Amino acid sequence: MRCLDFLFRNNKKVIYFLYFMLMIYGMAMIVWAVVDKILDSEGKSTTFTVWMLVGVGSMLNASLGLYGTKIDDNCLVYASIIFLFVTCISQILVTIIRIAVPHQEAPKEKERFQKMFNSELTNLNDEFHKIEIEWQCCGVLGFDDYEEKFDPVLVGYPPSCCESGKRCQKPYPIGCHTMITHARFVRELIRAIIFITFSVLKFCSAIVIAVLTIWHEEYFREEKI
After folding, report:
1. Residue 87 contacts residue 50 (beta carbons within 8 Å)
2. What is the DSSP code (8-state) at residue 184?
């Protein structure tokens, strides 16, 4: 009860604070989008676009709410609250879709790796060996894939499959397709956890703002009675 009393008596300050945090959240999303695109060489433009839209949208939403609160225009504040709820739900849906993307793309990626692995063209073989060196993996699904091409026991596995950079009998244990698919899933899962956490915080902020805006006057009217 004391908490509610404090919130209602300082409703404008609390609302200003929450919108200010939303503004910071928007800025953080924009910075994150840029940094994520730089660090993730395989990053897709769709991911960057979504992050940027969320960041810019959050900042516009915060600006609308701040202005509405400042001039005591409840219509603008209500519009901001509705937009907050809509964006929170949208973000959660987008996050769920993003988590599923690596699994949906896995069969196509496997087919592409298989073509490079089985190809007789030198440039495609070299491209696959570069992937093996970069990801420290061997074969498409595993080092056993090379048994279909030659006898690794006699000639050894390719240098790209070995830490030494020379032909060896102890290659990397995991296939490139398995390694890359797992890495992408983990990366998307980390992004999802961060994204959903901020979405929940936004949702809670929207509820607090809605309560303070809608029931503020009614609270003090009941208190006087």
Report:
1. no
2. H
